[in-house]
Design brief:
It is a single chain. The chain has 1 helix and 2 strands, in the order E-H-E. It is an alpha+beta fold. The protein has one domain. The chain has a two-stranded parallel sheet. The radius of gyration is 13 Å and the shape is flat. The protein starts with a strand and ends with a strand. The structure holds iron/sulfur cluster. The site of iron/sulfur cluster has 8 residues, from loops.
Length: 55
């Protein structure tokens, strides 16, 4: 089985404010239900590996 993967930035919230950071955007987080819907879509698309990252 081929490895199908995504990197999912689940939040941009962070309390560190590093000067070099380009992902500190303060975008509102999705709800649990919205994240669950995305997860199910990824699974149905055949995604086999997810790397979650965030602030
Ligand atoms: S996400 Fe990482 S790099 Fe960006 S401000 Fe937070 S700790 Fe720093």
């Amino acid at each position: 089985m081929e490895r199908e993967e995504v990197c999912w930035l689940i939040t941009t919230k962070c309390n560190q404010k590093c000067k070099y950071c380009h992902s500190f955007l303060n975008i509102a987080d999705l709800t649990y239900e919205e994240n669950k819907e995305i997860l199910m879509k990824l699974i149905n698309m055949g995604i086999t590996h997810i790397t979650w990252s965030g602030g």
